[in-house]
């Protein structure tokens, strides 16, 4: 049915688009939409102009085509859609203006299973007794960033919420079950409120931020005992893949649900206007957005979301050098530990390598800053983290490590100094 209906459309007469494709006014203002369903996987009823009848089109893998008369057409990115796309592309004056992009997790370079003692080879044991979690002594991301040294300084004012846009979260995990706001989570893959992780990536990212501390099991999140909760927003499927428009919608959703911080440990090797607009929306609401730079040892300035206005994070090894796989560029703001990072996975714990692990270290430290002063704007948090980072490779800002290794202790001290000066 869809094949026959699409084949009968005259390209030059069509004027339509779909509101679910983008949450932004610059697209909304140019579209007409008539549907009783909001599911992108459903067959939606889309209104054409008065000279045509209504028809059905599958709203998945779409392309937007500008027509000679100034109108737009959405093309399904499959064999049926390709047929009409080929014909419209030959129509004089027709221009393809945007192709929705597939997003992928930044896959870990290496995954290291751990035993009950959590020992991780070359990682020096941390002898601090700040928390009683057995894996804590091998969480070098906490010790190198001085997060545990910063914990006692913080006078938390309110609960802080970190939205993790990823593959979901294992909300039954013993180190995460008390740290998740299930009532605020959402699954954009199947349009439900069940954000269970069917991949593992989102669970690992979430544990780095907020695994429960002092429960005598597993590990501690970088925020320690602070009241920091995860809003799970599932925008990637079991293969770690998703769609650009869902990511943009997910960012807006998280902001509207009260997120203070948004973590994005995924990417695509091109810019995205949709994602950039969503990030700008978040920042306009005071929400701090963190993104992993990528694991290809390439310049990520023109990648999304790292190059689209998020606080881009490179990965550092335990020798205070850029991890060999970490992307670089002018967009890099800071570096954070990203090798053998111990965290939660469905059914247990593993140590992973990747900038996907470095980004949540920064998200957690941003949550610590927000805990001390919830009135700070996104730009103020950015300034604090930039100005307190520790030079590790070159003096000043560089493309490898940005302003340097993020330093939680120095950041919290800076926040307290600002509070004191403003009294």
Automatic annotation (TrEMBL):
Q: Which residues form the Peptidase S8/S53 domain?
A: 158-404
Q: Which Gene3D superfamilies match?
A: Peptidase S8/S53 domain (3.40.50.200)
Q: Name one GO molecular function term.
A: serine-type endopeptidase activity
Q: Does the keyword Transmembrane helix apply?
A: no
Recorded hits in InterPro entries, A to Z, give: Peptidase_S8/S53_dom, Peptidase_S8/S53_dom_sf, Peptidase_S8_Asp-AS, Peptidase_S8_His-AS, Peptidase_S8_Ser-AS, Peptidase_S8_subtilisin-like, Peptidase_S8_subtilisin-rel, Thermitase-like_dom
Q: Where in the cell is it found?
A: Secreted
Q: Which SUPFAM superfamilies match?
A: Subtilisin-like
Give GO BP annotations, semicolon-separated. Answer: proteolysis
Designated name of the protein: Thermophilic serine proteinase
- Biological source species: Clostridium magnum DSM 2767
């Amino acid at each position: 049915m869809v094949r026959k209906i699409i084949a009968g459309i005259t390209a030059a007469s069509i004027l339509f688009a779909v509101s679910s494709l983008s949450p932004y006014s610059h697209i909304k203002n140019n579209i007409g939409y008539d549907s009783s369903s909001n599911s992108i996987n459903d067959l939606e009823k889309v209104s054409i102009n008065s000279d045509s009848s209504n028809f059905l089109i599958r709203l998945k893998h779409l392309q937007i085509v500008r027509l000679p008369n100034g109108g737009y057409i959405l093309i399904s990115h499959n064999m049926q859609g390709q047929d009409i796309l080929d014909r419209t592309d030959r129509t004089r004056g027709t221009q393809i203006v945007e192709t929705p992009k597939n997003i992928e997790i930044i896959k870990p370079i290496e995954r290291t299973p751990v035993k009950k003692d959590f020992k991780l080879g070359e990682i020096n044991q941390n002898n601090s007794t700040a928390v009683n979690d057995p894996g804590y002594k091998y969480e070098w991301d906490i010790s190198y960033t001085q997060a545990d040294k910063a914990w006692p300084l913080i006078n938390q004012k309110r609960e802080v919420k970190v939205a993790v846009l990823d593959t979901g979260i294992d909300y039954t995990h013993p180190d995460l079950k008390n740290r998740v706001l299930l009532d605020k989570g959402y699954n954009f893959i199947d349009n439900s409120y069940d954000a269970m992780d069917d991949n593992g990536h989102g669970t690992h990212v979430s544990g780095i931020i907020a695994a429960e501390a002092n429960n005598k099991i597993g590990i501690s999140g970088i925020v320690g005992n602070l009241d920091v909760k995860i809003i799970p927003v599932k925008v990637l499927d079991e293969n770690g893949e998703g769609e650009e428009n869902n990511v943009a919608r997910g960012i807006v959703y998280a902001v509207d649900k009260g997120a203070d911080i948004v973590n994005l440990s995924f990417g695509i090797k091109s810019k995205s206007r949709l994602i950039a607009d969503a990030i700008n929306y978040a920042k306009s609401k005071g929400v701090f957005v963190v993104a992993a730079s990528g694991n290809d040892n390439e310049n990520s300035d023109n990648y999304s979301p790292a190059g689209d206005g998020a606080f881009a994070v490179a990965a550092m090894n335990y020798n205070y050098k850029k991890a060999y796989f970490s992307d670089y560029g002018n967009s890099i703001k800071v570096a954070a530990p990203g090798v053998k990072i111990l965290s939660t996975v469905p059914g247990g714990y593993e140590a992973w390598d990747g900038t996907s692990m470095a980004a949540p270290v920064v998200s957690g430290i941003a949550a610590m800053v927000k805990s001390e002063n919830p009135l700070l704007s996104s730009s103020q948090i950015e300034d604090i983290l930039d100005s307190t980072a520790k030079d590790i490779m070159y003096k000043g800002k560089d493309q490898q490590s940005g302003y340097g290794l993020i330093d939680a202790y120095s950041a919290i001290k800076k926040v307290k100094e600002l509070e004191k000066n403003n009294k």
